[in-house]
Write a structure and sequence with these properties.
binds 3,4-dihydroxybenzoic acid, globular, 283 residues, 9 helices, binds fe (iii) ion, Protocatechuate 4,5-dioxygenase, Chain B, two-stranded antiparallel sheet, eight-stranded mixed β-sheet, alpha/beta
Length: 283
């Protein structure tokens, strides 16, 4: 049984990558955002994970509108990054854990999730920026990327994403190894990048979402995707990744750390660290 050490969720605004590349962490605009990561890094350094499951959304680098899987799971030995057009430095490939990937895929398919399996997968800013934020000076652990479509409607419902996460949690509970696993979610919180409401942020919604995510994520599942677009903005649907992460943690959790900062670019930026309240027994 793998040990789930906890969950981290963070926004993945591309400009964060630019700020890191330029060393602007102490700049007044960026400091309140980057300062939030000190505690998360300390938490990770005290008990480093052996693997990281990353729920993220691809923005058109690996999948485009011509072929858009709802759920795609990486099963590669490594995950290269490529230039998406944001002008960010291209990172070197991230390591994968193929055995754990296939184990998770087996559980997901057994639980009737018809996932796309990716033995080659490019990872975009939604994957690379959170990895750089959490491990700025060291090699991150091997990753299992799980991409959730938030680009081409129809999108999976909040309830389905929570169940997806629970299935991943079951897979980890049934894993014969004893690896320590971190579950990472990227995206959100409220933001809208284009259209008449460009720049839309909804702090009241975000605060309620965070409380519900911790205390009872089922409450969020009452929302349709249309509700979330209305309440959190067109790109606020990225909170689906946070729900999947919460599902993977399965039992009760406690909020170990939270840093909410408005705005970073057009986004209500948030970092959340969740710890399992107690160890969850087997599948
Ligand atoms: C921004 C936010 C995102 O989530 C993204 O993928 C791209 C840009 C932004 O606020 O600039
Ligand atoms: Fe995004």
């Amino acid at each position: 049984m793998a040990q789930i050490i906890g969950g981290v969720a963070t926004s993945h605004v591309p400009a964060i990558g630019g700020a890191m590349a330029k060393g602007l962490q102490q700049d007044p605009y960026w400091k309140p955002f980057f300062d939030g990561f000190g505690k998360a890094r300390k938490w990770l350094a005290e008990a480093p994970p052996d693997a990281v499951v990353v729920f993220y959304n691809d923005h058109g680098l690996n999948f485009f509108l011509d072929k858009m899987p709802t759920f795609a799971v990486g099963a590669a030995a490594q995950y290269p990054n490529a230039d998406e057009g944001w002008g960010l430095p291209v990172c070197r490939p991230y390591r994968g854990d193929q055995a754990l990937s296939w184990h998770i895929i087996e559980q997901l398919v057994a639980d009737e999730f018809d996932v796309t399996t990716c033995q080659e997968m490019l990872v975009d800013h939604a994957f690379t920026i959170p990895m750089q934020l959490l491990w700025p000076d060291s090699e991150p652990p091997p990753a299992i990327p799980i991409a959730i479509n938030t680009v081409q409607h129809p999108l999976p419902s909040p309830a389905r994403c929570l169940r997806l996460g629970r299935s991943v949690g079951r897979a980890l509970a049934g894993w014969p190894g004893a690896q320590r696993v971190l579950v990472l979610a990227t995206g959100g919180l409220s933001h809208q990048l284009d259209g008449q409401r460009a720049g839309f942020i909804n702090k009241a919604f975000d605060m309620a979402f965070l409380d519900q995510l911790v205390a009872g994520p089922e409450a969020i599942c009452r929302h349709s995707i249309r509700d979330i677009v209305e309440q959190a903005g067109t790109q606020g649907v990225e909170l689906l990744m946070w729900l999947a992460m919460r599902g993977a943690l399965r039992g009760p959790v406690r909020r170990a750390h939270q840093n909410y900062h408005i705005p970073i670019s057009n986004t209500a930026a948030c970092l959340l660290v969740l710890e399992p309240e107690r160890a969850v027994a087997t599948a």
